[in-house]
Amino acid sequence: MLERLHIKNVAVIDEIEIDFKKGFNVLTGETGAGKSIIIDSLNFVLGEKADRDLIKEGAETAEVTAVFSVNDKDTENGLIDLDVRLDDENCLLLFRSFGQEGKSNCKVNGRTVTVGILKEIAKLLIDVHGQHDNQSLLDPWRHLALLDRLCYDQIGEHIEKLSHRYKSYKKTCKALEDISGSDGDRQEKIDMYTFQIEEIKSAKLQDGEEERLNEQRIMAGNSAKIKRCTNEALDNLSRGQQGNARDCIANAIRSINTLAGVDESKEGLCDILSEMSAQLDDVIAQLRAYEDTLDNDSRDIDEIEARLDVIYNLKKKYGKSIGEIKRYAKEAEEKLEFIKNSEDMIMEYTMRKEADERVMRRISAEISEIRKEVAVGVAEKVEKILGDLGMINARFKISVTDREDVDDRGTDRVEFLVAPNVGTDVRPLTKIASGGEMSRVMLALKVVLSEVDNIETFIFDEIDTGISGRTAQRVAEKIAAISKVHQVLCITHLPQIAAMADTHFCISKAAKDGKTVVGVRELRGELITDELARLIGGAEITEATKTAAADMKTQADTKKKKIKGE
Predict the structure, then answer these.
(1) Alpha-carbon distance values, 78 to 124, 388, 455 (Å)
(2) Number of Cβ atoms within 10 Å of the Cβ of 47
(3) Parallel, antiparallel, or unpaired: how do β-strands 2-10 and 13-19 relate?
(4) Vertex 552, ends 507 and 491: CA angle to 5°?
(5) What is the CA 532 to chain-centroid distance, rounded?
(6) Looking at the whole model, is its pTM more than 0.70?
(7) Tens-place pLDDT, residues 372-410
(8) Are 332 and 189 in contact (CB under 8 A)?
(9) 549 partner at 20 to 30 Å CA-CA among 69, 130, 302, 526?
(10) Kind of pairing, strands 427-428 and 410-419?
(11) 508 phi and psi angles, rounded to 5 deg
């Protein structure tokens, strides 16, 4: 169950913390005080979408922390499947922040997780019903999901088998599509791969060719300068008629040899010059060899550019390098060979697909029988609860019909039908139900759901839309019945519902130092009576409304004890 909710810098809330209790928790307060922000904050920490409007004006980051205790083994196992572990006290701490830059930071027990994981965790921990959830009753796909939750013990194993087979079926369909497609698609792929292979092969690409061509392009573009500089260097070193470096060093060596005959201390200079002469010969040899390559490399720059264009165009289509282009060609050859020789594979995959579909339809038929059987019992329970909620003559039916296609949910189309009054046929909720009727249908389904669901916390956000008087009292009693085995959090404007609460929180909003400050406190004793009097009488609270509020609370406590068997 939800133990604690800490909210910081969300909408008009600066910072508040609420410690929720077991049983029936109710939140009341003036319109606009911030009650729905509490639920919005909880939805946020459970993975719902967020935007910058969530962040309190002037703050950089909105933060919400929720602490849950988990007392259900199935829920714990579901968390383990998500790679989420409880702490030593069987608690789960969820944290989420949202900054002005638009990024979320999500953590579970201190470990960073994705928003998707928070959503999966939320499905195990909490069931939120708000005014917008009434709209889900207009979507038959949601009807199927609700019915399946009501009969999961009977169909869970079948659904798991169906899901496994459906994955195999989809994989087979994808493989079959890749291999065959239509005859036109198949021939188109053959033509495409043939063209690509020929285009790459005809280019006769060589490893390292692009690098060599780029070097040659530089050389070709600067050939005149290169030849001139090479010739000048050789002329100065060895080919000049007068004063080239080689002749000058040779003359110097002869002179120093003569000098050494007179002064032996200068003999070492000859060794140095001899070493320089050898090094000079090496430089001259390298320059001459280089000069020979210049004479032999007569490749035109236009030819080089044309070859580089071929490589560039292939890189645009098939890869970032010659190596990648060659690998693409090899893969294309393998795909082409596969398609050309795929007749046997097509037959094999077709048979596998048909086998998967037969199994899926058999499992779906078993699931359908269970759904239809459970649907009758659920409809009877919902009808009875609707009667208790003031819709005495209402008839409710769950229609389970076949669809032609099959998927991981089976072949059923499920739709909730209702006839709110005598003399009318059952029709889809979209055609019949008002807002108040919709709320009561949803509450009736939640009551039935609470009998089989292992979710520990149910939240009702202003489920009192469109109801009042005696109906409101009956709604309060049904919510109290749910709170026998589940924690319930309920936001309401109705005193009949608030009076049934085990724990009553009041949300208030006030101006302080030029700022709007939202506060929350748990009410006890006379403070509960005063708040009920406000809900009964509005702005003006008289002694009569206080007396009525006290009497309402006394009756509610008596009724609640009876409901809970205390």
Answers:
(1) 7, 35, 11
(2) 22
(3) antiparallel
(4) 30
(5) 43
(6) no
(7) 999 999 999 999 988 888 888 889 999 999 999 999 999
(8) no
(9) 130
(10) antiparallel
(11) -130, 155
Nearest to 22 by CA among 78, 71, 84: 71
d(CA 10, CA 483): 29
Structural contact between residues 352 and 433, judged by C-beta atoms closer than 8 angstroms? no
Angle of helix 223-234 relative to helix 267-296, nearest 10 degrees, comes to: 150
Spell out, as residue ranges, where the chain has pLDDT lower than 70.
33, 129-138, 180-184, 220-224, 240-242, 295-299, 432-436, 462, 465, 538-539, 566
Burial of 310 (0-12, 13-18, 19+ CB in 10 A): middle
- Residue 519, token pair as written in the block: 């506060």
The sheet with strand 503-512 has its strands ordered as 126-129, 457-461, 487-491, 24-29, 503-512, 515-523
Give pLDDT, residue 137. 63
Residue among 435, 431, 408, 417 at smallest CA distance from 378: 417
Whole-number Å distance between alpha carbons of 277 and 400: 103
Contact predicate 421/476, CB 8 Å? no
Token pair of 194, please?
């043939």
Q: In terms of DSSP H, where are the helices of 341-468? A: 343-388, 429-432, 435-450
* Side chain identity, residue 71: N
> Which token pair is 94?
């969820």
At residue 410, the pLDDT reads: 93
Q: Distance between CA atoms of 446 and 131, rounded to whole angstroms?
A: 14
SS3 388: helix
Spatial distance between the Cα atoms of 253 and 274, rounded to a whole number of angstroms? 7
> Residue 122 corresponds to which tokens in the numbers above?
């939320």
**Paired tokens of 120:** 């999966």
CA distance 347 to 355: 12
What pLDDT does 555 receive? 92
| pLDDT the model gives residue 277 | 84
| CA 541 to each of CA 319, 445, 545, 550, 555: distance values in angstroms, whole numbers, following the listed order | 79, 37, 6, 13, 20
The C-alpha atoms of residue 230 and residue 294 are separated, in whole angstroms, by 10
Q: Which helix (H) or strand (E) holds 96?
A: strand 91-99
Q: In the numeric block, which tokens belong to residue 74?
A: 């199935």
User: How many other CB atoms sit within 10 Å of the CB of residue 52?
Assistant: 11
Phi, psi of 333 (to 5 degrees): -65, -40
- What stretch of H or E contains 398? strand 395-407
Q: Please tell me the distance from the alpha carbon of residue 319 to that of residue 328, in angstroms, as a whole number.
A: 7
- The CA distances from residue 409 to 33, 156, 190, 364, 385, in Å, are 43, 11, 37, 8, 28
pLDDT at 135: 54
Please report the domains of the chain, with CATH numbers, ordered by start residue. 1-129+462-469+487-566 (3.40.50.300), 131-180+345-455 (1.20.1050.90), 201-337 (no CATH)
With the CA atoms of 138, 142, 144 and 150 taken in that order, what torsion angle do they form, in degrees rounded to the nearest 10?
A: -110
Residues 6+ apart with CB under 8 A from 170: none
